């Protein structure tokens, strides 16, 4: 099995290389290429904070770690270091090439040494008015322990030298993060040229004013960045509230063990030695020499320049064919199922649904799961408004949504203040399902409406993540969604589910049964196929079953954005498995499964990836799609993506990330899907007019 299984941590680096490919791709608009550099950098930060941190922890178990993981964490970490260093060299070359491209558009990055008199005056004023009071240096002293550095922040490591005495002093200075001061500052335009300077260089220009009381005549600053273990250790003390435990754990995160140290390769050896000693870094720790600037994730929010061809041409959101302004959405769902496909359809539809429910005199209750929320969440506003209008509102807020824990505590408190019932997850299980249930009672008739999705109820990410959201009043579904919420309220209640597939109670077994059914049909000479669109597929049991299905003659097609531990095309193992990954302007996040089932296709949407954590340690909901029109739409979307020859990469044994070869006609799936959905809407409108 080991030769036919790619460690997920290595596969993830292959995914991030695909992001880097988009930054390298000359067919991608220039400013978007900078954005992909930012995404790559942001991804890598989280990768080290979580995945590499976990490998480090496992390596402490010695030989047992290989049994736990299935492969050696120590060997894997060494391979990670090699790949990251290779990718870092490529990253720097891409960045340099993008700067040259910018100059062709009369946009120049300049540093503090390249300023003319007018620009120097602008920078000095900016430093005095906006920056100076934010800077608090720390003098490095051999007798004083280094305080906990902010995870993923950037610092200047500063060398101060008095040339007369050759006396040296060292200091650290945190560069204010992008939510406090912009990382990129536009200087006054001159001769049609737009000049941009890093905040780092504005700080460099004024550093002498910060250290004026020290005797020195030479000053140099080198950027460093420390990434820490971000995994949480939540204790089992039942006398503590869950929020108290989590809050303590978040405090511990700030003191996490370093897992990566990035530094300016021009830094003098003596300063580097002091820093590595202060940070307790050894030869086995990941230390990456880099260029002058770090935290390229800030390029995700690069300056906005309105020039044709520099950014993607916008794809306008499509108003869903069944939803009309001023008309009840609940009345539509009562008559037929509706499927939204974000961001092609506008997320405003879901906000409109919640607002309608909040003021409908016959709606009695709203139940919803909340995992990651927008900063200024209209979803939260609608739920609080429903509570103010006398509705019973129950929210299941998952506090362990990684890096959103503090935000979710904040939202939970706001909801509690408005009289909303807040359930903080399920002990021992992370609630990752995306569910909403609206109950409407008129006379003696109770009608329920369910929303089951693949992505979070987050209007910000819904603009850039592709996700499906099914709205239905079908009792077989709504009654089981109610059972899921009953379980959240009383964890000892474990009802039977006949239609929804719920992790960790039945999804794994059902997946195995569905795969085995295709194997049986293939052996009987019937058509048999499995089409899966997912974010990550790493579960060994399911992979083993897919290999068995391939050997039995089942045609398996996988569209996997991120980690894939399957090795397609291996002789006598996976010859009938092909896999692609699509990286494009929208993050491919929607998850769905299609099984041939002897010609009567079964289609499911799901919140779950096919990983042990999703199948065994999370509450996930996989929902059947029964409406024939919606089923066809999901299947059509799969085929459009499968035929992509513009943004699709092939998975292979070497993880080469080769682009799918273009045929006679280029097929850019995200553009094609937008056209496809627009066409369905146009046909629907024509049918109504006739």
Structural account:
- There is one protein chain.
- With about 700 residues, this protein is of the alpha/beta class.
- The chain folds into three domains: about 1-300, Polyphosphate kinase middle domain (polyphosphate kinase like), CATH 3.30.1840; about 330-500, Endonuclease Chain A (Endonuclease, Chain A, 2-Layer Sandwich), CATH 3.30.870.10; about 500-690, Endonuclease, Chain A, CATH 3.30.870.
- It is about 40% helix and about 20% strand.
- The protein is built from 18 helices and 26 strands.
- The strands form four sheets. Strands 14, 18, 19, 20, 21, 23, 24, 25 and 26 form a nine-stranded mixed β-sheet that branches.
- A hairpin with a 6-residue loop joins strand 23 (about 590-595) and strand 24 (about 600-605).
- Helix 1 packs parallel to helix 4, helix 5 packs across helix 6 (about 200-210) and helix 14 (about 505-525) packs parallel to helix 15 (about 540-550).
- It is globular, with a radius of gyration of 27 Å.
- It starts with 7 loop residues before the first helix and ends with a helix.
- The model is unreliable at about 230-245 (pLDDT under 50).
Question: Which labels suit this protein?
Answer:
690 residues; alpha/beta; polyphosphate kinase like; Endonuclease, Chain A; nine-stranded mixed sheet; 18 helices
């Amino acid at each position: 099995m080991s030769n036919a299984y790619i460690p997920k941590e290595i596969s993830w680096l292959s995914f991030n290389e695909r992001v880097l490919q988009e930054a390298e791709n000359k067919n991608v608009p220039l400013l978007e290429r900078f954005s992909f550099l930012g995404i790559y950098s942001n991804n890598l930060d989280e990768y080290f904070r979580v995945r590499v941190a976990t490998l480090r922890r496992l390596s402490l178990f010695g030989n047992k770690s290989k049994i736990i993981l299935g492969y050696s964490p120590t060997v894997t970490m060494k391979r990670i270091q090699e790949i990251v260093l290779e990718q870092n060299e490529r990253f720097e070359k891409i960045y340099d090439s993008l700067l040259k491209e910018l100059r062709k558009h009369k946009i120049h990055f300049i540093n503090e040494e390249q300023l003319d008199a007018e620009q120097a005056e602008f920078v000095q004023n900016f430093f005095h008015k906006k920056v100076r009071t934010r800077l608090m240096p720390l003098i490095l002293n051999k007798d004083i322990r280094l305080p906990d550095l902010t995870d993923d922040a950037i610092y200047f490591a500063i060398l101060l030298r008095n040339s007369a005495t050759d006396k040296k002093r060292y200091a650290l200075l945190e560069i204010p993060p992008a939510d406090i001061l912009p990382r990129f500052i536009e200087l006054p335009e001159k001769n049609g040229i737009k000049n941009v300077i890093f905040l780092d260089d504005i700080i460099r220009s004024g550093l002498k004013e910060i250290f004026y009381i020290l005797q020195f005549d030479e000053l140099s600053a080198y950027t460093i960045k420390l990434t820490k273990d971000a995994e949480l250790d939540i204790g089992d003390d039942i006398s503590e509230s869950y929020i108290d435990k989590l809050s303590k754990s978040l405090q511990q995160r700030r003191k996490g063990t370093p897992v990566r140290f990035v530094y300016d390769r021009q830094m003098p050896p003596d300063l580097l030695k002091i820093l590595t000693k202060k940070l307790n870094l050894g030869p086995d720790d990941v230390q990456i020499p880099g260029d002058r600037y770090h935290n390229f994730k800030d390029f995700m929010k690069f300056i906005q320049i309105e020039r044709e061809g520099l950014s993607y041409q916008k794809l306008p959101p499509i108003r869903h064919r069944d939803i009309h302004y001023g008309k009840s959405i609940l009345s539509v769902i009562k008559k037929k199922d509706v499927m939204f496909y974000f961001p092609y359809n506008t997320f405003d539809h879901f906000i409109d649904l919640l607002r309608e429910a909040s003021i409908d005199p016959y709606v009695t209750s709203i139940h919803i799961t909340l995992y990651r929320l927008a900063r200024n969440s209209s979803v939260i506003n609608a739920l609080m408004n429903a509570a103010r209008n006398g509705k019973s509102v129950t929210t299941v807020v998952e506090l362990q949504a990684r890096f959103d824990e503090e935000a979710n505590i904040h939202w939970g408190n706001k909801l509690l203040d408005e009289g909303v019932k807040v359930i903080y997850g399920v002990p021992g299980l992370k609630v990752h399902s995306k569910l909403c249930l609206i109950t409407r009672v008129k006379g003696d008739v109770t009608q329920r409406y369910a929303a089951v999705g693949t992505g979070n109820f987050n209007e910000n990410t819904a603009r850039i993540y592709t996700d499906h959201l099914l709205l239905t009043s079908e009792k077989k579904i709504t009654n089981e969604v109610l059972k899921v919420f009953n379980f959240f309220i009383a964890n000892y209640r474990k009802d039977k589910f006949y239609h929804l597939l719920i992790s960790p109670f039945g999804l794994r077994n059902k997946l195995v049964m569905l795969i085995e059914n295709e194997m049986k049909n293939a052996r009987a000479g019937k058509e048999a196929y499995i089409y899966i669109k997912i974010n990550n597929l790493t579960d060994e049991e399911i992979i083993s079953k897919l290999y068995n299905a391939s050997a039995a003659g089942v045609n398996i097609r996988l569209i996997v954005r991120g980690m894939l531990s399957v090795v397609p095309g291996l002789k006598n193992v996976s010859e009938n498995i092909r896999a692609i990954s699509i990286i494009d302007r929208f993050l491919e996040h929607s998850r769905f499964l299609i099984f041939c089932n002897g010609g009567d296709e079964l289609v499911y949407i799901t919140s779950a990836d096919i990983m042990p954590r999703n199948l065994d340690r999370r509450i996930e909901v996989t929902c059947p799609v029964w409406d024939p029109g919606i089923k066809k739409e999901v299947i059509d979307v799969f085929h459009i993506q499968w035929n992509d020859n513009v943004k699709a990469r092939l998975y292979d044994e070497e993880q080469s990330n080769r682009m799918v070869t273009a045929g006679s006609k280029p097929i850019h799936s995200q553009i094609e899907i937008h056209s496809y959905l627009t066409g369905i809407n146009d046909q629907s409108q024509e049918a109504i007019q006739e």
